[in-house]
Amino acid sequence: MSRLTWLLVLSCLVSLVWAQREPVPVQEEFQLDNGDGILSLLKTAVGLDDNRQSPESESPTDAKTPSQEPLRIVAMGDLHGSYQNTVDILRYMGIVDSDDKWIGGKTVYVQTASAQYGDVVDRGPDTIKLYALLQQLKIDAKLAGGEVVALLGNHEIMNLAGDWRYVTTSDIETFGNRTARQAAFDIHTGYIGTYLAKLPISARVNTTVFVHGGIHPSFAEGGSEGLNAVAKGMLPGYVKDPRHGDTIGIFHTLGPVWYRDYALEDEDVICPVLDEALLMLEAERMVIGHTVQANGRIGHRCDGRLITIDVGIGVAYGSHQAALEIIGSDVWAVYAGGKRSKIQEPLKRDEL
Ligand SMILES: *[C@@H]1O[C@H](CO)[C@@H](O)[C@H](O)[C@H]1NC(C)=O
Ligand SMILES: *[C@@H]1O[C@H](CO)[C@@H](O)[C@H](O)[C@H]1NC(C)=O
Protein backbone atom coordinates (compact mmCIF):
# COMPACT_ATOMS: atom_id res chain seq x y z
CA MET A 1 0.00 0.00 0.00
CA SER A 2 1.14 3.51 -0.68
CA ARG A 3 1.90 5.92 2.10
CA LEU A 4 -1.21 7.84 1.22
CA THR A 5 -3.44 4.79 1.70
CA TRP A 6 -1.80 4.12 5.06
CA LEU A 7 -2.42 7.65 6.10
CA LEU A 8 -6.08 7.35 5.12
CA VAL A 9 -6.49 4.08 7.04
CA LEU A 10 -4.79 5.59 10.05
CA SER A 11 -6.95 8.70 10.06
CA CYS A 12 -10.09 6.56 9.75
CA LEU A 13 -8.99 4.56 12.78
CA VAL A 14 -8.26 7.70 14.74
CA SER A 15 -11.65 9.18 13.98
CA LEU A 16 -13.38 5.91 14.88
CA VAL A 17 -11.62 5.83 18.25
CA TRP A 18 -12.42 9.52 18.69
CA ALA A 19 -16.11 8.86 18.02
CA GLN A 20 -16.13 6.10 20.66
CA ARG A 21 -14.45 8.15 23.35
CA GLU A 22 -16.16 9.03 26.58
CA PRO A 23 -18.62 11.82 25.85
CA VAL A 24 -17.86 15.18 27.34
CA PRO A 25 -19.67 15.51 30.68
CA VAL A 26 -22.98 17.20 30.06
CA GLN A 27 -22.31 20.11 32.36
CA GLU A 28 -19.36 21.20 30.20
CA GLU A 29 -21.61 21.70 27.21
CA PHE A 30 -23.34 24.48 29.08
CA GLN A 31 -21.95 27.87 29.91
CA LEU A 32 -24.44 28.34 32.68
CA ASP A 33 -23.59 27.76 36.27
CA ASN A 34 -26.74 26.05 37.32
CA GLY A 35 -25.25 24.77 40.54
CA ASP A 36 -22.43 22.81 38.83
CA GLY A 37 -23.38 19.30 37.71
CA ILE A 38 -27.12 19.75 38.20
CA LEU A 39 -27.70 19.83 34.49
CA SER A 40 -25.94 16.55 33.97
CA LEU A 41 -27.94 14.94 36.77
CA LEU A 42 -31.10 16.35 35.34
CA LYS A 43 -30.39 15.19 31.83
CA THR A 44 -29.62 11.70 33.09
CA ALA A 45 -32.80 11.76 35.14
CA VAL A 46 -35.09 12.66 32.27
CA GLY A 47 -33.28 10.41 29.83
CA LEU A 48 -32.15 13.30 27.64
CA ASP A 49 -28.59 12.23 27.93
CA ASP A 50 -28.86 9.77 25.07
CA ASN A 51 -25.31 10.09 23.78
CA ARG A 52 -23.86 9.04 27.10
CA GLN A 53 -24.39 5.35 26.48
CA SER A 54 -25.34 3.79 23.18
CA PRO A 55 -27.97 1.02 23.42
CA GLU A 56 -25.53 -1.60 22.01
CA SER A 57 -23.09 -0.99 24.81
CA GLU A 58 -25.64 -1.90 27.47
CA SER A 59 -25.50 -5.53 28.42
CA PRO A 60 -28.97 -7.06 28.93
CA THR A 61 -28.11 -8.08 32.49
CA ASP A 62 -27.11 -4.53 33.32
CA ALA A 63 -30.70 -3.35 33.49
CA LYS A 64 -30.16 -0.93 36.35
CA THR A 65 -28.75 2.08 34.55
CA PRO A 66 -28.52 5.33 36.51
CA SER A 67 -31.35 6.85 34.48
CA GLN A 68 -33.79 4.28 35.86
CA GLU A 69 -33.00 4.80 39.52
CA PRO A 70 -35.47 7.28 40.93
CA LEU A 71 -33.76 10.42 42.02
CA ARG A 72 -34.09 11.52 45.66
CA ILE A 73 -34.56 15.26 45.88
CA VAL A 74 -34.73 17.05 49.22
CA ALA A 75 -35.65 20.72 49.33
CA MET A 76 -35.75 23.23 52.16
CA GLY A 77 -37.20 26.68 52.32
CA ASP A 78 -35.90 29.91 53.81
CA LEU A 79 -33.39 29.33 56.59
CA HIS A 80 -33.26 32.93 57.81
CA GLY A 81 -30.05 32.66 59.68
CA SER A 82 -30.89 29.71 61.89
CA TYR A 83 -28.04 27.23 61.81
CA GLN A 84 -29.37 24.93 64.52
CA ASN A 85 -32.81 24.49 62.97
CA THR A 86 -31.21 23.92 59.59
CA VAL A 87 -28.92 21.12 60.71
CA ASP A 88 -31.69 19.55 62.80
CA ILE A 89 -33.71 19.13 59.61
CA LEU A 90 -30.72 18.02 57.53
CA ARG A 91 -30.04 15.37 60.20
CA TYR A 92 -33.50 13.87 60.34
CA MET A 93 -33.54 13.89 56.52
CA GLY A 94 -30.35 11.83 56.51
CA ILE A 95 -28.40 14.53 54.66
CA VAL A 96 -25.80 15.21 57.37
CA ASP A 97 -24.58 13.27 60.43
CA SER A 98 -24.17 14.62 63.94
CA ASP A 99 -20.91 16.32 62.87
CA ASP A 100 -22.76 18.03 59.99
CA LYS A 101 -20.91 15.95 57.40
CA TRP A 102 -22.67 14.86 54.19
CA ILE A 103 -24.23 11.40 54.43
CA GLY A 104 -26.89 12.05 51.78
CA GLY A 105 -25.22 9.87 49.12
CA LYS A 106 -26.67 10.70 45.73
CA THR A 107 -29.42 12.93 47.07
CA VAL A 108 -29.97 16.23 45.28
CA TYR A 109 -30.46 18.79 48.05
CA VAL A 110 -32.03 22.04 46.91
CA GLN A 111 -31.91 25.02 49.20
CA THR A 112 -34.43 27.53 47.99
CA ALA A 113 -32.97 30.11 50.22
CA SER A 114 -29.94 29.00 48.83
CA ALA A 115 -32.34 27.57 47.17
CA GLN A 116 -32.67 28.61 50.08
CA TYR A 117 -35.50 29.40 48.94
CA GLY A 118 -33.55 32.17 48.94
CA ASP A 119 -33.14 33.59 52.23
CA VAL A 120 -30.18 32.14 54.05
CA VAL A 121 -29.19 35.51 55.36
CA ASP A 122 -30.93 38.06 57.58
CA ARG A 123 -33.16 37.83 60.63
CA GLY A 124 -30.69 35.66 62.52
CA PRO A 125 -27.02 35.63 63.49
CA ASP A 126 -25.70 32.56 61.66
CA THR A 127 -25.06 33.96 58.17
CA ILE A 128 -21.39 33.00 57.96
CA LYS A 129 -21.92 29.52 59.42
CA LEU A 130 -24.80 28.74 57.06
CA TYR A 131 -22.98 29.82 53.93
CA ALA A 132 -19.90 27.88 55.01
CA LEU A 133 -22.03 24.80 55.68
CA LEU A 134 -23.68 24.98 52.26
CA GLN A 135 -20.38 25.44 50.48
CA GLN A 136 -18.83 22.50 52.33
CA LEU A 137 -21.84 20.27 51.68
CA LYS A 138 -21.69 21.16 48.01
CA ILE A 139 -18.14 19.84 47.78
CA ASP A 140 -18.82 16.73 49.88
CA ALA A 141 -22.07 15.88 48.07
CA LYS A 142 -20.29 15.91 44.74
CA LEU A 143 -17.74 13.38 45.97
CA ALA A 144 -20.60 11.10 47.02
CA GLY A 145 -22.42 11.46 43.69
CA GLY A 146 -25.01 13.84 45.12
CA GLU A 147 -25.61 17.50 44.55
CA VAL A 148 -26.28 20.62 46.56
CA VAL A 149 -28.12 23.36 44.73
CA ALA A 150 -28.29 26.69 46.48
CA LEU A 151 -30.57 29.26 44.88
CA LEU A 152 -30.55 33.02 45.24
CA GLY A 153 -33.35 34.56 47.24
CA ASN A 154 -34.47 38.17 47.54
CA HIS A 155 -32.49 38.65 50.74
CA GLU A 156 -29.27 37.49 49.12
CA ILE A 157 -29.82 40.03 46.37
CA MET A 158 -30.73 42.77 48.86
CA ASN A 159 -27.49 42.18 50.73
CA LEU A 160 -25.47 42.26 47.53
CA ALA A 161 -27.13 45.57 46.66
CA GLY A 162 -26.38 47.02 50.10
CA ASP A 163 -30.02 46.94 51.26
CA TRP A 164 -29.65 46.03 54.94
CA ARG A 165 -33.18 46.68 56.15
CA TYR A 166 -33.53 43.22 57.66
CA VAL A 167 -30.00 42.67 58.88
CA THR A 168 -29.78 42.12 62.63
CA THR A 169 -27.17 43.72 64.88
CA SER A 170 -26.05 40.30 66.04
CA ASP A 171 -25.45 39.33 62.43
CA ILE A 172 -23.23 42.38 61.87
CA GLU A 173 -21.34 41.48 65.07
CA THR A 174 -20.41 38.06 63.70
CA PHE A 175 -18.57 39.85 60.89
CA GLY A 176 -16.83 42.23 63.31
CA ASN A 177 -18.38 45.46 62.11
CA ARG A 178 -20.39 47.00 59.27
CA THR A 179 -17.37 47.66 57.06
CA ALA A 180 -16.27 44.04 57.33
CA ARG A 181 -19.75 42.79 56.49
CA GLN A 182 -19.98 45.14 53.51
CA ALA A 183 -16.65 43.85 52.24
CA ALA A 184 -17.78 40.24 52.62
CA PHE A 185 -20.83 40.87 50.43
CA ASP A 186 -18.93 42.72 47.69
CA ILE A 187 -19.99 40.95 44.52
CA HIS A 188 -16.52 41.24 42.95
CA THR A 189 -14.21 40.70 45.90
CA GLY A 190 -16.13 39.56 48.99
CA TYR A 191 -15.93 35.96 50.18
CA ILE A 192 -19.72 35.76 50.36
CA GLY A 193 -20.45 38.10 47.45
CA THR A 194 -18.36 36.16 44.97
CA TYR A 195 -20.02 32.93 46.11
CA LEU A 196 -23.52 34.40 45.71
CA ALA A 197 -22.70 35.82 42.29
CA LYS A 198 -22.32 32.27 41.02
CA LEU A 199 -25.61 30.94 42.35
CA PRO A 200 -28.50 30.28 40.01
CA ILE A 201 -31.90 31.83 40.53
CA SER A 202 -33.78 28.66 39.64
CA ALA A 203 -33.12 25.00 39.02
CA ARG A 204 -35.03 22.31 37.21
CA VAL A 205 -34.41 18.82 38.56
CA ASN A 206 -36.18 16.13 36.56
CA THR A 207 -39.74 17.45 36.33
CA THR A 208 -39.63 19.94 39.19
CA VAL A 209 -38.62 23.59 39.00
CA PHE A 210 -37.33 25.26 42.17
CA VAL A 211 -37.24 28.98 42.69
CA HIS A 212 -37.41 31.36 45.63
CA GLY A 213 -40.53 33.37 44.83
CA GLY A 214 -42.05 31.99 41.64
CA ILE A 215 -41.46 32.16 37.89
CA HIS A 216 -44.13 34.19 36.11
CA PRO A 217 -44.59 33.29 32.42
CA SER A 218 -42.98 36.59 31.44
CA PHE A 219 -39.70 35.23 32.83
CA ALA A 220 -40.15 31.62 31.70
CA GLU A 221 -39.46 31.90 28.01
CA GLY A 222 -35.89 30.62 28.06
CA GLY A 223 -36.60 27.88 30.58
CA SER A 224 -34.81 27.67 33.89
CA GLU A 225 -31.37 27.88 32.30
CA GLY A 226 -32.31 30.86 30.20
CA LEU A 227 -33.64 32.65 33.25
CA ASN A 228 -30.42 31.97 35.14
CA ALA A 229 -28.34 33.36 32.31
CA VAL A 230 -30.40 36.55 32.15
CA ALA A 231 -30.30 37.02 35.93
CA LYS A 232 -26.57 36.44 36.08
CA GLY A 233 -25.99 38.98 33.35
CA MET A 234 -28.20 41.56 35.04
CA LEU A 235 -26.99 41.10 38.63
CA PRO A 236 -23.73 43.13 38.68
CA GLY A 237 -25.45 46.12 37.08
CA TYR A 238 -28.38 45.90 39.47
CA VAL A 239 -26.16 45.62 42.53
CA LYS A 240 -24.22 48.69 41.43
CA ASP A 241 -27.32 50.73 40.68
CA PRO A 242 -30.61 49.17 41.89
CA ARG A 243 -32.64 52.01 40.40
CA HIS A 244 -31.40 51.73 36.82
CA GLY A 245 -29.37 48.54 36.62
CA ASP A 246 -32.27 46.15 36.03
CA THR A 247 -34.08 47.08 32.84
CA ILE A 248 -36.47 44.09 32.78
CA GLY A 249 -37.60 43.97 36.41
CA ILE A 250 -36.08 40.58 37.07
CA PHE A 251 -35.12 41.65 40.62
CA HIS A 252 -38.37 43.50 41.25
CA THR A 253 -41.85 42.56 42.49
CA LEU A 254 -42.86 40.30 39.59
CA GLY A 255 -39.41 38.80 39.27
CA PRO A 256 -38.58 35.24 40.39
CA VAL A 257 -37.17 36.10 43.81
CA TRP A 258 -40.04 38.39 44.90
CA TYR A 259 -43.16 37.07 43.16
CA ARG A 260 -45.95 35.94 45.53
CA ASP A 261 -49.07 35.49 43.42
CA TYR A 262 -48.72 31.71 43.01
CA ALA A 263 -48.81 31.42 46.79
CA LEU A 264 -51.45 34.08 47.55
CA GLU A 265 -53.75 34.79 44.59
CA ASP A 266 -57.04 32.86 44.10
CA GLU A 267 -56.42 29.50 42.49
CA ASP A 268 -59.04 30.16 39.80
CA VAL A 269 -57.00 33.10 38.67
CA ILE A 270 -53.48 31.93 39.25
CA CYS A 271 -53.42 28.21 38.34
CA PRO A 272 -53.79 28.92 34.59
CA VAL A 273 -50.89 31.36 34.88
CA LEU A 274 -48.81 28.75 36.70
CA ASP A 275 -49.66 26.17 34.03
CA GLU A 276 -48.52 28.50 31.31
CA ALA A 277 -45.20 28.95 33.10
CA LEU A 278 -44.81 25.20 33.73
CA LEU A 279 -45.39 24.48 30.07
CA MET A 280 -42.68 26.93 29.10
CA LEU A 281 -40.35 25.53 31.75
CA GLU A 282 -41.10 21.95 30.65
CA ALA A 283 -41.89 20.99 34.22
CA GLU A 284 -44.73 19.31 36.13
CA ARG A 285 -44.50 21.30 39.31
CA MET A 286 -42.95 24.40 40.82
CA VAL A 287 -41.57 24.45 44.35
CA ILE A 288 -41.27 27.85 46.00
CA GLY A 289 -40.12 29.42 49.26
CA HIS A 290 -40.43 33.12 50.17
CA THR A 291 -44.08 33.18 51.22
CA VAL A 292 -44.30 31.88 54.79
CA GLN A 293 -46.90 29.22 55.53
CA ALA A 294 -48.41 30.48 58.77
CA ASN A 295 -49.38 26.99 59.95
CA GLY A 296 -45.80 25.71 59.65
CA ARG A 297 -46.86 23.07 57.11
CA ILE A 298 -45.70 22.50 53.56
CA GLY A 299 -48.59 23.55 51.35
CA HIS A 300 -49.75 22.69 47.86
CA ARG A 301 -52.02 24.44 45.39
CA CYS A 302 -53.24 23.93 41.83
CA ASP A 303 -53.61 20.16 42.35
CA GLY A 304 -50.05 19.77 43.53
CA ARG A 305 -48.49 21.67 40.64
CA LEU A 306 -47.37 24.30 43.14
CA ILE A 307 -45.70 23.40 46.43
CA THR A 308 -44.93 26.02 49.06
CA ILE A 309 -42.07 25.05 51.34
CA ASP A 310 -41.26 28.17 53.38
CA VAL A 311 -42.60 26.89 56.69
CA GLY A 312 -40.73 29.43 58.82
CA ILE A 313 -37.57 27.55 59.76
CA GLY A 314 -35.96 30.63 61.28
CA VAL A 315 -36.31 31.39 64.97
CA ALA A 316 -38.10 34.65 64.10
CA TYR A 317 -40.82 32.61 62.36
CA GLY A 318 -41.38 29.98 65.03
CA SER A 319 -38.65 27.43 64.22
CA HIS A 320 -40.94 25.17 62.21
CA GLN A 321 -39.19 22.13 60.82
CA ALA A 322 -40.07 20.66 57.45
CA ALA A 323 -38.40 19.51 54.25
CA LEU A 324 -39.82 18.37 50.95
CA GLU A 325 -38.76 14.99 49.63
CA ILE A 326 -39.34 13.83 46.06
CA ILE A 327 -38.47 10.28 45.09
CA GLY A 328 -39.38 9.42 41.51
CA SER A 329 -42.98 10.63 41.29
CA ASP A 330 -43.71 10.43 45.05
CA VAL A 331 -43.75 13.69 46.98
CA TRP A 332 -43.61 13.91 50.76
CA ALA A 333 -43.53 16.60 53.40
CA VAL A 334 -41.25 15.46 56.21
CA TYR A 335 -41.65 17.16 59.59
CA ALA A 336 -39.74 17.24 62.88
CA GLY A 337 -38.56 13.82 63.95
CA GLY A 338 -39.05 12.47 60.41
CA LYS A 339 -42.86 12.41 60.45
CA ARG A 340 -43.98 11.97 56.84
CA SER A 341 -47.06 13.14 55.06
CA LYS A 342 -47.73 12.38 51.40
CA ILE A 343 -48.46 15.24 49.04
CA GLN A 344 -50.79 14.84 46.13
CA GLU A 345 -49.10 14.17 42.81
CA PRO A 346 -49.45 16.95 40.30
CA LEU A 347 -52.39 16.49 37.97
CA LYS A 348 -51.87 17.69 34.45
CA ARG A 349 -54.37 20.21 33.14
CA ASP A 350 -55.99 17.65 30.80
CA GLU A 351 -56.51 15.18 33.65
CA LEU A 352 -58.79 17.54 35.51
C1 LIG B 1 -13.77 46.36 61.17
O1 LIG B 1 -13.35 45.03 61.29
C2 LIG B 1 -12.20 44.73 60.55
C3 LIG B 1 -11.98 43.23 60.62
O2 LIG B 1 -12.28 42.71 61.88
C4 LIG B 1 -11.02 45.52 61.09
O3 LIG B 1 -9.84 45.21 60.40
C5 LIG B 1 -11.35 46.99 60.95
O4 LIG B 1 -10.33 47.77 61.54
C6 LIG B 1 -12.68 47.34 61.60
N1 LIG B 1 -13.06 48.68 61.22
C7 LIG B 1 -13.66 49.51 62.08
C8 LIG B 1 -14.05 50.84 61.50
O5 LIG B 1 -13.89 49.22 63.24
C1 LIG C 1 -38.79 12.00 36.99
O1 LIG C 1 -40.13 12.38 37.18
C2 LIG C 1 -41.07 11.44 36.71
C3 LIG C 1 -42.44 12.07 36.81
O2 LIG C 1 -42.69 12.60 38.08
C4 LIG C 1 -40.94 10.17 37.53
O3 LIG C 1 -41.87 9.22 37.10
C5 LIG C 1 -39.53 9.65 37.36
O4 LIG C 1 -39.35 8.54 38.19
C6 LIG C 1 -38.53 10.71 37.73
N1 LIG C 1 -37.19 10.25 37.41
C7 LIG C 1 -36.27 10.05 38.34
C8 LIG C 1 -34.95 9.58 37.83
O5 LIG C 1 -36.47 10.26 39.51
UniProtKB/TrEMBL annotation:
Molecular function GO terms recorded: hydrolase activity
Signal peptide residues on this chain, from the entry's feature table: 1-19
Keywords, alphabetical: Signal
UniProt cross-references to InterPro entries, sorted A to Z: Calcineurin-like_PHP, Metallo-depent_PP-like
Superkingdom of source: Eukaryota
Region ranges (Disordered): 50-69
Keyword Oxidoreductase belongs to the record: no
Domain Calcineurin-like phosphoesterase, residue spans: 71-292
Keyword Signal: yes
Gene3D superfamilies assigned: 3.60.21.10
A Pfam family it matches: Metallophos
Record's compositionally biased regions (Polar residues): 56-68
PANTHER family per UniProt: SHEWANELLA-LIKE PROTEIN PHOSPHATASE 1 (PTHR46546:SF4)
Full protein name: Calcineurin-like phosphoesterase domain-containing protein
Organism, scientific name: Bifiguratus adelaidae
